Amino acid sequence: MKTLLALLFFCVSFGSTAQAISSYTTTVCTPQSTGYYFCTLLKISNGVSNSKQCHLILDNNGDLMYCRKLPLGQLTCDFKLHNNGLISYYYNNKFYLVDSTFKTIDSVYCKNGLLKDTHELLILPNGNYALLGIEIIEINLSSHYMFMNKNLPGSKKAKVKCGVIQEQDINKNVVFEWHAKDYYDFTDVDSFFLTDTLNVDWTHFNSLELDHDGNYIVSARYLNEVTKIKRSDSTVLWRLGGKKNQFEFINDPDKFIGQHDIRRLANTNISLFDNGRMDSVIRPALAKEYKLDEKKFKIELIWRYLDNPKASSVFSGSVSRLANGNTLINYGTSNNSRTLFNVVDSKGAKVFEIVFTDTVASYRAYNYEDLPWKIQRPAIRSYRKNDKLYLNAGRGYSSYEWSTGETSQIIEINNSGNYSVAIPVGIDGAVYSKPFLVESVTKLKPK
Question: Count of CB atoms within 10 A of residue 364's CB?
Fold first, then answer.
C-alpha cells in the first residue's frame, strides 16, 4: 500500500520553469497500468495551436520519459508508434517518421494537389502509406438553408472542404484515392457544424482504419457517420450513423455524434469515441464498443464507459483496447473536465488516470506494452562528501537539465523532495530519468 500511495502522490510533472510542460497529477495508478503512454499536448484557441505543443512518453507510473516541445503556430498531432518500429507525428504540413534515437528519417504527405490533413497516417502491412487529405471545390449552396444554426443559406460560391483517402506505395507513388464529393450528398452533413456560409468544412474526416478484410473504414465527423469503402474499386460497402445510416441500432437509439477514432478490434467488434455535444440537453462523451453484423445490417452496443455525465468533448479524442483487455480513453478537448486520459477495466474501474491543472488537450493517446527499442534514461546516483549530499546524473551527455533548473552533471542537495534530470535527444527532445526521492538529507530512496 505504501508503494501504491507513493505512485499516486509523486507522479507529478517537474517543477522548474525550464522543464515544466504543464502541471499534471497521476490521480490513479495501479499495478494494472503497464507499458508506455504516448500523447501530444496542445492548446487551441480560435483554431490555432498557440501554446504547450509537446510530444510526450510517460512510463506506467505516469512519470515523464520523453518530451519534445514544438514551436507555436503550427499544429502537431498523432504522435504514435508503428508496427515497423518507427514513430510518426504530424507537423508543418507533413507526417514525419523518426527512429529509436528520435532522429527524423523520412516524411510523408498527400500528393496530387491535395491539401494537408492532420488526422491520420497508417503504415500498412505491405509498407504502403495511407493518409487523409482535403480538396476544396466551389459549390453554389444558396439553396441550402442550413447555416449558422439559424437556417441561413450558404454562399453562391462556397469553398467546400471535401475529404479524400490517399494510399501511396513504399516509393510514395499514389496507388489509391477515394473522394468524398463523389459519394456523399452535401445535405448529409449535420447542420450543427455549418458555422461559415463561405468557407465550409463539410465531411471532416478524422480517422482511417484498415479493416481485417483489407478495406478502409473512415470516420466522417461532420456527417456523424462511419463509412466502409472497398479498396479494390472504391465501392461504398456500408454507411453507419448519420442521415444515411443503413444499420439498425438495437440498443443505442442515440447512435453517436461528432465521433473520433473508429477502430476494428481483435474480437471483430468496433470501437469509437462518441464526442457528444453540449446542447440544451447534454450528450456526454462516451467510449463505445459495438458488435457489427455487416450481413444483417444490425449493430449492438456491447460496452460503454461514461467518465463524466456533465462533460462532452468539443473535438479530438480516442479509444483503444489494450492487450490485457483494458481500455485507454483520451477525452480530447473536454468542455467540463481536466482529465487528459484514463485506463479502465472491463467493469469500468479506473486503472490509471492523468489529470492536468491547465486546459490542455491531446488529440489521441496510445499505450504500448513494449517498445521495439529501449529508451536509455539517465540514472541518478547519490553520494556524500564533506557532510554534503550530491546527486550525479552520470557522464557522457552533452548537457543536463535538472528539475531544480541546474545544468551540471552533479548537483548539491539541501532539501527533501523528488529530483529528476533530462538529457537531450533528437531534435529539441529530452529523455528524463526516473524521479529520485530524497526523503530527507540523510535518507535517500530511489523511486
Answer: 26
* Average pLDDT for 48-65: 85
Alpha carbon distances (Å) from 433 to 58, 394, 404: 11, 11, 14
Q: CA 374 to CA 321: how far, in whole Å?
A: 24
Contact yes or no for 200/141 (Cβ under 8 A)? yes
Rg of the chain over all Cα atoms, to the nearest angstrom: 23
Give the integer Cα–Cα distance in Å for 283 and 310: 8
DSSP character at residue 120: -
Alpha carbon distances (Å) from 190 to 117, 146, 261: 20, 9, 18
Amino acid at the residue 291? K
Q: Which residue has the cell 553520494?
A: 383
Query: For the residues of 239-285, what is the DSSP string, one character each?
Result: EESSTT--SEESS-TT--SS-EEEEE-TTS-EEEEE--B-SSS-B--
Residue 384: helix, strand or coil by DSSP?
A: strand
How do residues 195-251 score in pLDDT, each as one tens digit?
999 999 999 999 999 999 999 999 999 999 999 999 999 999 999 999 999 999 999
Q: How far is it, in rounded angstroms, from Cα 245 to Cα 359?
A: 35
* SS3 (DSSP) at 444: strand
Phi/psi of residue 56, nearest 5 degrees: -125, 145
Decide if 299 contacts 290 (C-beta within 8 A): yes
d(CA 43, CA 200): 23
- The answer to whether 363 and 40 are in contact (CB under 8 A) is yes
Backbone dihedral region of 52: left (phi > 0), alpha (psi from -120 to 50 degrees) or beta? left
Residues shown for the chain: 447
Q: Do residues 382 and 444 touch, judged by C-beta distance below 8 A?
A: yes
Instruction: Compute φ and ψ for 20, nearest 5 degrees.
Output: -60, 135
Q: Which of 288, 277, 341 is nearest to 311 (CA)?
A: 277
Contact 141, 157 (CB under 8 A): no
Q: CA of 351: how far to CAs of 26, 145, 326, 343, 345, in Å?
A: 11, 47, 8, 5, 7
Look-up: residue for cell 549530499? 389
What's the rounded Cα separation, in Å, for the pair 190 and 354? 33
In angstroms, the CA 378 to CA 422 distance is 7
Taking the C-alpha atoms of residue 10 and residue 25, their distance in angstroms, rounded to an integer, is 8
Total-model pTM? 0.93
Q: In the chain, pLDDT over 90 holds for what percent of residues?
A: 85
Contacts of 368 (CB under 8 A, 6+ apart): 35, 36, 38, 81
**Which pLDDT score is estimated for 9?**
27
